[in-house]
Each structure stands twice: as C-alpha cells, then as structure tokens.
C-alpha cells in the first residue's frame, strides 16, 4: 500500500509558521506601524534616544494588545523582558531593533543595540540548557518553574530603511539561540516577514539651524 506523505510547509510560508506559534502578520505589522508613528512624533529638541525608545514602547504595546484582544494571550514581565505570553505558557513574544540584515533569509541579522543579560538567559532556555533563574512574574500571568523552563521567547526584530519618499520596515519573528556580549550570534529559528512600506518622513518641527556645542566646565 502506498504511503501518503504530508506536504511540509514551504520554508518561506511565513503565514503557516506564524500560525504554528499562534500569531499572525496582522498582529505584527500594526506594531511596526505604531512604532514608526511614535518615532515621527519626536522633534530635534527631544533627547537623543527618544525616537528609538518610543518606537520600542509602541512595538511592545501593540504586540501585546493584538494578542491579548484576539488570542487571549497574557501580558508578562519575564526576567526583565517585556513580552506577551500564550495562554499555555509555551510562547512569548517581545521586540528588538535589528541591523540591515533583518528580514533577509540569506543573511545573519543581529540586534542593533546591546541587550541585557535577560536576553542571553532567554536564548539559553531556547536551546534547552538546564540553567535558568527563577522568573519574576507580574500581573496577569504567573509561570510555574516548569513553564518557565519550557518558555520560548521570540522577538519581533525590525530595521527601517528610508528610500526616497518611502520608508520600508524590514522585519522577522525570530528565536535567539545564542547571545554573546549582548548580541545575538545565533538564531535557532527565523521567520522573515514581508517588508512594511510607509510614506516618507516629514520633519515634525523645526526651530532653526542645527545643534551647537557649548563646552561646559563642571566644578
């Protein structure tokens, strides 16, 4: 008797891969869009890191809201990582900024800025090493030690490219496998996503020429 084979999903079938995790592109792209809108609210008079901080905050907020409202996920602060967690405690999603290789299956992206030790610990759990500190759950969900040991923490990694009057945000949902010196050096699994295209950027506010540098002596 012939054996019927079950067709495996194509490697680039991101929708099948996202569905296996309980998420959708429709939950992730709105987060990127909201982050860009927040970034554009920043003026030259804001502190230097404001744009990136606001974008990150909106990425986390919208990723949480979309999964909480549509899939019953729970908000979770896990070992200093701001994530949203699936109801069975198996999958969590956070956000981070990537580099120019983000979203390109043929390249190896890494996080744009150095991450704290919590990301390295998450990667260790993702690769099923034995060590893991006791989690510090908060608010809506509390993971048991067993749940924390099997929690996979994925990240919505994004990188923005300005191209004339358009902006492209490249992204992927990826699972860190190894973190060295604050940077992801190995991904256990990556799901590159379609680029999000938005209109270009118009300066929100201008109050004159650029910055001046005044030396100040501290006594």
Which residues form runs of ≥5 with pLDDT under 50?
1-9, 129-139
* Biggest beta-sheet profile: 6 strands, mixed
Oligomer type? single chain
Question: What is the approximate shape?
Answer: globular
Helix content percent band? 25-40%
Report the strand count: 6
Task: Write a brief structural summary.
The chain is an alpha+beta fold. The protein has five helices and six strands; from the N terminus they run H-H-H-E-E-E-H-H-E-E-E. Residues 101-122 are annotated as: Disordered.
Defining traits:
globular; 6-stranded mixed sheet; alpha+beta; single chain; 6 strands; 219 residues
Can you offer a commentary on this structure?
It is a single chain. With 219 residues, this protein is of the alpha+beta class. The protein contains five helices and six strands. It has helices at 14-21, 25-40, 50-71, 117-126, 145-150; strands at 74-78, 81-85, 91-97, 152-163, 166-180, 183-199. The protein has a six-stranded mixed beta sheet with strand order 1-2-3-4-5-6. Helix 2 (25-40) packs antiparallel against helix 3.
Set out the fold topology.
Layout: H1 14-21, H2 25-40, H3 50-71, E1 74-78, E2 81-85, E3 91-97, H4 117-126, H5 145-150, E4 152-163, E5 166-180, E6 183-199
Parallel strand pairs: 3-4
Antiparallel strand pairs: 1-2, 2-3, 4-5, 5-6
């Amino acid at each position: 008797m012939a054996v019927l084979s079950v067709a495996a999903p194509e490697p680039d079938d991101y929708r099948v891969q996202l569905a296996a995790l309980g998420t959708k592109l429709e939950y992730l792209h709105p987060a990127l869009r909201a982050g860009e809108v927040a970034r554009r609210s920043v003026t030259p008079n804001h502190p230097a890191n404001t744009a990136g901080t606001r974008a990150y905050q909106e990425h986390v907020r919208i990723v949480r809201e979309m999964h909480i409202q549509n899939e019953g996920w729970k908000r979770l602060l896990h070992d200093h990582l701001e994530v949203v967690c699936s109801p069975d405690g198996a999958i969590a999603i956070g956000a981070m900024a990537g580099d120019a290789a983000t979203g390109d299956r043929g390249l190896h992206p890494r996080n744009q800025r150095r991450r704290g030790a919590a990301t390295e610990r998450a990667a260790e759990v993702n690769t099923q090493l034995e060590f893991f500190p006791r989690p510090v759950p908060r608010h809506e969900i509390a993971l048991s030690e067993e749940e924390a040991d099997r929690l996979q923490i994925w990240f919505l990694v994004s990188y923005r490219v300005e191209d004339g009057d358009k902006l492209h945000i490249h992204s992927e949902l990826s699972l860190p496998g190894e973190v060295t010196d604050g940077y992801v050096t190995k991904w256990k699994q990556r799901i590159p996503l379609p680029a999000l295209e938005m209109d270009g950027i118009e300066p929100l506010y201008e109050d004159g020429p650029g910055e001046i540098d005044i030396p100040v002596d501290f006594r």
